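SUBJECT: protein chain
CONTENTS: sequence, C-alpha cells:
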Amino acid sequence: MKVISTIADLKNELETVRNNGCTIGLVPTMGALHEGHASLVRRSVGENDVTVVSIFLNPTQFNDKNDLAKYPRTLEADCRLLEQCGATIAFAPSVDEVYPEPDTRSFNYPPTDSVMEGAFRPGHFNGVCQIVSKLFAMVEPDRAYFGEKDFQQIAVIRRMVEDLGFTLQIVPCPVVREASGLALSSRNTLLNDDERQIASNIYQTLAQSREWAKTESVQVVHDHVVSQINAISGLEVQYYSIVDGRTLADVASWNDSNDIVGCITVFCGQQPIRLIDHIRYKG
C-alpha cells in the first residue's frame, strides 16, 4: 500500500491506473479507523481494481472547535489496518494541501441538509459537501463507499452528486455494531467502559421501538424512544426524528411513506460524547 500526502502525487498515481483500464473505489474517512471502516474498504477491494482511502480530518465540517480538537487521530494505526484490508492507496493530506485557500462554495439541499444534524450543527453539511466534492474531483472514482451509520450524510451526498453531475456510484454499506448493538464509531474510543455499556441502550431502545411501531402512532413511538433513553442516567437525547428515508422530511403517519427511518443523536457520559444512530421502520 502506498501512503500519499499530495494531490499531485495522487493524481499521477491514478492516471497510470486509469490508463490501464482499472476501476477505482474511494472510501472517504476522517481517520481513527475501526471495523466499520474496514468493512467499507474490504467491500471496495472486492468490487474495484484499486481502492483509495482518504484519511483527512476535515475542519470545515466541524462547527464546534472543541469537537474537532478532541477527535481521535491515529494515522499509523489507520495505515496498518488499511494495509491488512488490501487498500491500494492511503491518501493523507494536510489541511493546507486540501485548502490552500478558503473554500467559499455554498451547498444547499433543503430539507435534506437542513433538518436533524443540519439544524443542530450549522454548516456541517456544507463542509461535508466541500470535502467530498474535492475528493471526488481528485480521485475520479467509479464508486464511493459510505457507512449507513451516517444516514443523513449519504442522503446529502446523493443530492450533491446530482447537483454537480458526478457520474460515480454511491455505495451505502450497512452499520457495523458491537456485540451490545452500539454502532461502531471513531467517537466510541472517547467512551470509558461504563459509558460504552450505557450507550448500548441507544440501539436496544431503537430496536424495541420497531415492536411499538406495529401498534402505536408515529408520535407515541417517538415519545417512547426519547423518554426511555432519557430515563437512563448518562444519556440525553438531542433529537429523535422519524422521517421519510429519501427526503428526510418528518412523517406524521406510518402510511406517509414506504421508506421510514428513525434518526437519533444522543449525548453520552460526562464529557459528553455525541453519538448518532438510526433504525429502519419501513423500506
In short: The radius of gyration is 19 Å. Residues 186-277 form a domain with the Pantoate--beta-alanine Ligase; Chain: A,domain 2 fold (CATH 3.30.1300.10).
